[in-house]
UniProtKB/TrEMBL annotation:
This is ABC transporter ATP-binding protein. It comes from Methanosarcina spelaei. It holds the Pfam family ABC_tran. The keyword Nucleotide-binding applies. It comes from the Archaea. InterPro entries: AAA+_ATPase, ABC_transporter-like_ATP-bd, FeS-cluster_ATPase_SufC, P-loop_NTPase. Residues 2-240 form the ABC transporter domain. The keyword Nucleotide-binding applies.
């Protein structure tokens, strides 16, 4: 579904990512680990098509189509959706109106009810929202958009220990949509690439493959739960060794 080949990216002449190779197959959930400043958000934002990230080498394929040069709105139409780490406040735009524009046939009220977001629908998007409320607002927008590939940048950050269950179960529900439908053409659920530091989200979502990004490039890939254990016990120093062992 998503294939990134030798991707090298700069912002304002500064190299942020180099020679990144990564894949997310249809129906798979992959995880992106890495220390602060490694370039994880930059990679996600580049995949989504934010214009300040300039691809100087390599390409991004989505469902075998080269989307490297496409603007963000066209990527969204093709089925890419992002939950940002720090989404902007949108003064003057009510959450209910944004959700209405995003939803393709799904009733915004039903979505809001399921996410316990009804009381936020008349407020301006993210303005004055708490950290956890911002995450739920982002999830509501994604649910309305109904993408086939979810790019989730630290979905658990700023969420308290009780609300993490709500956020985790919502993401699980969104990703498993379609899993039980009959027939050969049925999609094997949705696909996702998730950035996580704590791994809390993996208590709710089954992850298939993990990648470790260090210094702007992918150092290792493998079993995400084993990688998380390794990172917790030995830190990211091991990334470098892993690279050397390749
Ligand atoms: N638009 C930009 N202009 C200048 N520098 C940028 C821009 N976007 C990202 N960077 C820089 O690129 C580096 C990688 O940032 P990024 O946000 O991708 O890291 P990250 O791996 O997601 O870190 P964290 O885990 O702390 O969120 C940082 O040094 C950051 O300051």
């Amino acid at each position: 579904m998503l294939k990134i080949e030798d991707l090298t990216v700069e912002v304002n002449g500064k190299l942020l990512l180099h020679d990144v190779n990564l894949e997310v197959k249809r129906g798979y959930t992959n995880v992106l680990f890495g220390p602060n400043g490694a370039g994880k958000s930059a990679l996600m934002r580049t995949i989504m098509g934010f214009s300040e990230y300039r691809v100087v080498k390599g390409r991004i394929l989505f469902n075998r189509t080269d989307i490297t040069g496409l603007p963000v709105d066209e990527r969204a139409r093709l089925g890419l959706g992002i939950m940002m780490q720090r989404p902007p406040d949108m003064s003057g735009i009510k959450l209910k109106d944004l959700v209405k524009v995003l939803s393709k046939g799904t009733n915004p009220e039903t979505l809001a009810k399921n996410l316990d977001m009804k009381r936020f629908m008349d407020r301006d998007v993210n303005v004055g929202f708490s950290g956890g409320e911002i995450k739920r607002s982002e999830l509501l927008q994604l649910a309305a958009q109904n993408p086939s590939l979810y790019l989730l940048d630290e979905p658990e950050s700023g969420v308290d220990l009780v609300s993490i269950e709500q956020v985790g179960m919502t993401i699980k529900g969104l990703l498993e949509e379609g899993l039980n439908c009959p027939g050969e053409s049925c999609e094997k659920g949705k696909s996702a690439l998730i950035i996580t530091h704590t791994g809390q989200i993996l208590d709710y979502v089954n992850a298939d493959r993990g990648y470790i990004l260090c210094n702007g490039t992918v150092m290792c890939s493998g079993n995400p739960l084993k990688m998380l254990e390794e990172i917790k016990s030995r830190g990211y120093e091991e990334c470098i060794k892993c690279r050397l062992m390749k």
